[in-house]
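In keeping with the milestone schedule agreed at the kick-off meeting, the structural modelling team has produced records for the first pair of proteins. Each record is given below as a sequence line and a structure-token line. The laboratory manager (R.T.) confirmed that both were archived under the project's standard naming scheme.
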Amino acid sequence: MKKITIQTYANIALIKYWGKRDKKLFLPTKSSLSISLPYLKTSTTISESNTDKIVGINTGIQNVKKFLNLFRKIYQIKKNFKIETTNNFPTAAGLASSASGFAAIAKGLNKFCNLNLSNKELSILARYGSGSATRSIQQGFVLWNKGDYNDGSDSYAFQIFDQNFWPEFCIIIVIINSDQKNISSRQAMQITVNTCSFYKNWIHKSEKRIPKMLQAIKTKDFTTVGKLAELDCLQMHKCMKNSFPAINYWQKQTLQIIDFVKNLRKQKIHCYFTIDAGPNVKIICLKKDRAKIINNLLNICNSSQIMFN
């Protein structure tokens, strides 16, 4: 029996995606920019089946089935599939498991069905499963252009710098809670879009950060990258907390790690934080400071809570 196995990686947005202007086509309200994390891996095996079978995904099964139906419709495919997925990191806990998950399914279906899709086409396809999956098709620093067309044909992600461009750039993951979130990103972001009075203001400010972030990455200006990422994160979460009902994924230890990062900066250890839709914190640093930061983290965290490249 034919089987295809694909491995993809989660990505962490340095300039965030939070909200859709078109829920059916997964078109974002703004552009976003991310970096892939090769130590957060999704492995997906695809084979043919009499009926669609989803194995190893304990959340979002219906979303996968909808994605398969759409895939068949777009590419005139008459097969059913068995999708077997494993992650080496917590699922649905704010660590971009849907991004790597749907990117893997899109790439796997492309290979299984011999479609020979380009990275642009794969990015658009993955977007139908999860918006952030559009950025997990490629590695390194990736920009998802929000696009302007109503059909979504210009809303896709592309690599701006590959995974070898800035080897000193590191992200340390601090896992505060690996449990599934009580409200999905998909649901939470639309609550924010619909109810936060200053959401559009964040959109405007965040879009203006993208060219600054691109220039900072190009010149390897770590301080500017860190400041922009941290500011964008804080403003996004402010929007979430000022939605109705209020959305707050942070926990006590989330705040503790935020204070930890700020205190390290006072000690001239250069690091910044970013947080997605969950309690878990990503610490942005340079490789020369990574060991020192981790050693300090071990005073307030267990080693099992820490993941890094």
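The second protein of the pair:
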Amino acid sequence: MADARPYLFDFDPLLSEDERLTWKAARDFCEKTVRPKVAESYEAGTFPRDLVPAFAQMGFLGGPLEGYGCPGQDPVSYGLTMLELERQDSGFRSFCSVQTALAMWPIHAYGSEEQKARYLPDMAAGRLIGCFGLTEPNAGSDPGSMRTHARQDGPGGDFILNGQKMWITNSPIADLCIVWARTQMHGETTPEIRGFIVDRDTKGLSTPEIHGKLSLRASITGEIVLDDARVPKENLLPGVRGLKGPLSCLTQARYGIGWGVVGAAMACYERARSYALERTQFGKPLAAFQLTQQKLVDMHDAVVQGFLLALTFGREKAAGRLGPLHVSMLKRNNVHMARKVAAEARTILGGNGIMLEFDVMRHMCNLETVYTYEGTHEVHTLAIGRKITGISAFS
């Protein structure tokens, strides 16, 4: 038998020493600490909150942010941690991604100095959990049509928020919610979308959990319901107005997704490869059949290409050249890739492929959600299509 290794491409020479050390530390931690909790959490539909302090200690919360107790990672190192989390399960990566990119990042980017000092150190340490309220029951891919609204109660007064947000990761366990609302400032005639920090103890706030999910079961998902919720004026994010606020947060989160799903694809490909080498049918390993080798080669090449795309875009992000449409490319391409790799891996495992202990079907189910959240595949397609043709197909 020829000398065999899972990847023809050696990724390590492309990374700095710090990036390699970060990747190894993240992988070792996830294998030792996260892996034992994955299957039980997924089957039970629960998130192990006892992992949060360990995530914080590893620098997984607020990874790329500077100051306020945040690790200040470079974009590639941050991406590699997302890869290793999602190699275990998309739900664990989602927790850290939402905490970092959707809850901490808007405070860091658009918050007042008082807000940053009040919230970010405790969020980086895992003492406060955040969530991000943008999607609504009737406004998923079209956030501009949101109905959640806020009005200022008199000049210089507090804000009264009403509305409902849907499919909100972490909301049932969150200590604070970043809520985006169509806001009527006192004395202004035209409402604008503004962001608010809504604390858990706010009267009129509730966050019911969504049950019955067949995907992302190791992630807690819920709603944000605002019923005349009075939010202090000090909790308005002062640094941004309009859709730029929530959309820029999503750009940060999508970057992490583009890395994370490479980990899910790696897990599926590597499981299928090892299974094909060990499983004997008709007197020889599955890996000896031509069709199986074609599947493995297709998966291998797709995973390598996805990693290289993420790495290239990570370098561009570090150089300040990565724009929102580049991130759309990364999210769209790599999630599509991972979804196909998971489905192909399932065929190699046959009946065992649907069993929890073999991982692949769990990744398949998770990736169905990742395929549509934080921008559906179709919306990213049309956004990129508009840019390269100059023609909008949205309407």
